[in-house]
Amino acid sequence: MTTTPALFGPPPAGYERREIAPGAVHLPGWLTPDRQRDLVAACRAWATGPVPIRHTRLPRGGVMSVQTVCLGWHWQPYAYTRTADDVNGRRVARFPDWLADLGRRAVADAYQDPGQGAGYEPDAALVNFYDADARLGMHQDKDERSLAPVVSLSIGDTCLFRFGNTRTRNRPWTDLTLASGDLLVFGGPSRLAYHAVPKILPGTGDPAVGPARGRLNITLRVTGLTDPAPEATGAAPAGAAPVASPESGTRY
Ligand code: MD3
Ligand code: FE
Asked: Of the ligands numbered here, which is closest to the C-alpha atom of 153?
């Protein structure tokens, strides 16, 4: 059992807040060095299992250059499941409450709206690791059934991030750099915008804070999914009387 990282307390005083587009907010340096170190330690543990970090396989036979491990729900193109059927079939690690709390603070700070922060209930995280050559092509995040914001936390090497538009994967787009400690929140009219990570800038991270090399990105999402009722899983004997479900939300 790991202890809860010390992720609480206010972000650094005087951090900037940049609105890239309506609903897309960048808070450079929102994570303190201590919080970044705690998150790196957590990512190291998640990377070992129950589902190990791996290059996601694509439907046409390729693999992504980015390596990913999921919490709460497992993502593979193009669906979320509880078990990593494309890796080892195991259930992914649970989504920790402290990470949801961090997500609520992120949304509250990005939108300067404590109410919106309080109502944010992420249930899945994708931890992406980029080595010097990894890239992520232009795509939309649309496998979630909820349009709640996506929270993105960057640690390690700086990357070039390309924020596009909601209609096409082409221009217009805005390029910005994401450095260690940066928070991005994408919601509202920006939630379905195309975006990409065209380049990592190797050696730009501080190994005393982030990974020895490369870039970590943690995205928090609201899948909008629920587990099937127990009687629909095949777990109950045939013909068994339906069993009352436990308190909702506690089955995982
Ligand atoms: C804009 N990850 O995991 S995070 C992804 O740095 C992903 O690893 C990138 O794109 C990374 O899907 C970018 C920033 C991000 C995440 C979700 C978005 C930007 C977004 C959803 C809508 C619009
Ligand atoms: Fe994405």
From this structure: 1
CB-based contact 133:65 (threshold 8 Å)? yes
What is the C-alpha to C-alpha distance for residues 164 and 143, in angstroms, rounded to an integer?
A: 18
Q: Which of 152, 117, 110, 151 is nearest to 17 (CA)?
A: 110
Kindly report the pTM of this predicted structure: 0.90
Residue nearest to atom 14 of ligand 1 (CA): 152
Contact 215, 157 (CB under 8 A): yes
Which ligand 1 atom is nearest residue 193's CA? 23
| pLDDT tens track for 53-65 | 999 999 999 999 9
What is the per-residue pLDDT across 201-228, written as a single tens digit (0 to 9) for each? 999 999 999 999 999 999 999 999 999 8
Q: Would you state the structure tokens that stand for residue 107, as one six-digit string?
A: 């949304």
What letter represents residue 184's amino acid? Answer: L
User: Under 8 Å CB-to-CB from 247, ≥6 apart: which residues?
Assistant: none
pLDDT value of residue 232: 65
Is residue 153 within 8 A of residue 43, CB to CB? The reply is no
